[in-house]
Amino acid sequence: MQGPVVLQAEGAVVERQHPAERVARGEPLPRAVRFAGPGTGLPDGLLGLVRPAQPGAQALADEADGVRVVQRDEGGDPAVRRSRGLPERQGRLHRRRWCRRLAGMSPHEHPTGHHHASHHGTDLDWATLASHLEQEAELYAPLHEQAAAWLRELLADEAGAGPDGVRRVLDIGSGPGVISCVLARAFPAAEVVAVDGSAELLERARDRAAALGLGERFRTHLADLPDGLDALGGGDVIWSSKALHHLGDQRGAIAALAGHLRPGGLLAVCEGGLPARCLPRDLGLGRPGLQSRIDAAADEWFSTMREALPGFVHETEDWQAFLADAGLRTPATRSFLLDLPAPLSDGARAFLVANLSRGAERWADHFDEEDRTTLARLTDPEDAAGIGRRPDAFLLSAQTVHTARAQ
Predict the structure, then answer these.
(1) Dihedral of CA 6/11/12/16: which sign?
(2) Which site in 54, 159, 173, 294 is 20 to 30 Å from 352, CA atoms measured?
(3) How far apart are CA 403 and CA 258, in angstroms?
(4) How distant, in Å, are the alpha carbons of 110, 140, 383 from that of 114?
(5) How far apart are alpha carbons 47 and 101 in whole angstroms?
(6) Would strands 395-405 and 261-277 be described as parallel, antiparallel, or unpaired?
(7) pLDDT tens sequence across 199-240
(8) Omega of the bond leading into 226 within 30 degrees of 0 (cis)
(9) What is the mean pLDDT of residues 278-290?
(10) What is the pLDDT of residue 159?
């Protein structure tokens, strides 16, 4: 990666510091440089360093030179934009597309460490990030095994070939393939296709499948979502976990996946549930209720992330309605629990330390000084009160799976 590039254009100086690399390392960007100007509404940590030479200068994308800076109309007045023949939100959407492209946010990276949709054109350190994703998925494997067993039950409830008749399973947004391999064990006669936008993560998936002896039953398909699915073909079971909410039009994404179901096929979407808990209400450090304040910061980040997506559609997140609108039948929903009580294994502790560290840095501006101090102690491996050493650390989470079947 080249060093910082300093550009001067139309009244502002932009220092291209490649925030993708900093985000990949879990390093925060100072608040003073997260926003190109007042009222931009851009997500934290997704913008390069911008030092406006004039008030209100903004950084935008430009396919030719990578960064372009323009002078924003004061206050972003929609009337001024209309007088120029521009849509009211056009500039905002362009800025957001650039931020997402530059920061390279993964379809698997979430505020609480759970699993996001295009990877191409980024400089993320996938070797580092993939290990974190694998560690998380392995911790959650008991939950996903329960979900896979439930899918078999659903397929056995109706006339037809049943679960043993499943011949092709598609895992959309598979990441490093941990859940793909769970599905391969649940449907032993099926070819399983792990679909993701990261070649590095798919390589991990292939290595995992080979180590488990899945052989020719396991394939990978490199594709950005949802546009890269056309060549994928059909499936008897299509699974997607924590990927669709990183597409602007969730209803449209469900319809696209439903279009790949074979007759009688089952679509299963893992979205929603309850935030993971790992801390007692009163830690004996700082103010009680830190976990709730972490959840609030994550919720705000998540809403901002959603609004920044290209083609974002604001609507009620009714997954069963999305499935019905796609022409699917016999809807069913069930939530599954991951309950890892204290004392945690070393691996679970290491995951929580990494997860809390990323959150503490990403959402630092949402916490007061006392909470920041508490989080610093919780993520300090040498502190006896830290999550890596305290005996009361646990992991409790619930994830919800929504399903429906093709005609």
Answers:
(1) negative
(2) 173
(3) 11
(4) 5, 9, 26
(5) 10
(6) antiparallel
(7) 999 999 999 999 999 989 999 999 988 788 888 999 999 999
(8) yes
(9) 95
(10) 66
